[in-house]
Amino acid sequence: MFSQIENEQEALQSLCDILAEGDKFCLAWIGYCEDDVEKTIRPIAKAGPGLGFPEGVHHSWGSADNQRCPPGLAVSTGEPCLVDDISTDSTFPSWRIVATQAGFISSLSLPLIAHDKRGSIVDLRGTLNLFSDKRAFFDDETVKHYTCLASSLTHAVAAQRRDLAEGLAFGVKSLRAGTDRRRAEEALQAAQAEWPAHHG
């Protein structure tokens, strides 16, 4: 699916659109961490009836009590953060109020991390966040399924970034080689122009 998508933003938005299709989720959104003072998790792509939620609340990967939220916990621990019943969960007090008002009952936040073939960790420093209007919607099998999906997305985006970086490096190298070749040609032409003057 991701191999035919031209850029990262389009890949992320397409995934959110697919997840929210048919009202499967009230909201699916993907956020990336920023290194600002508030340690913001900025929504990059989103889809579903609850679109206003990511914008209506500040999501942070900070550790202070007033910053705590499932996406932030998923980022900081590298593990899925599951909330079976948002209305009764006491872990994220300020976040819970806004999420409940938006009509969300359960949620799952997944870190965008994966392991490459060499065993190294690929970390996009972001999260895939899913919200349902059903209690305990995310059973073990569902969590496992979407964790694999988040890992696949991470691999796809990392590969896309790597290809882009390699393409840019090649372009710069080619441009530099072209510039060097042009300078050499100009120097040769100048030398040839001077040759008759010295040996006329």
- The helicity comes to 40-55%
Structural class: alpha+beta
What CATH architecture do you see? 2-Layer Sandwich
State the shape: elongated
The parts where pLDDT drops under 50 for at least 5 residues are 1-5, 167-172
Going by CATH, what is the homologous superfamily? GAF domain
Biggest sheet architecture: 5 strands, antiparallel
Task: Look up the CATH topology.
Answer: Beta-Lactamase
Q: Strand order of the main beta sheet, please?
A: 2-1-5-4-3
Oligomer: single chain
Rg calculated over all Cα atoms: 25 Å
Number of helices: 5
Content of β-strand:
15-25%
Count of β-strands: 5
- SSE ordering: HEEHHEHEEH
The N- to C-terminal Cα distance equals 69 Å
Q: Topology, please?
A:
Elements: H1 8-20, E1 27-33, E2 41-47, H2 52-56, H3 70-77, E3 81-83, H4 93-101, E4 106-115, E5 121-132, H5 140-199
Antiparallel strand pairs: 1-2, 1-5, 3-4, 4-5
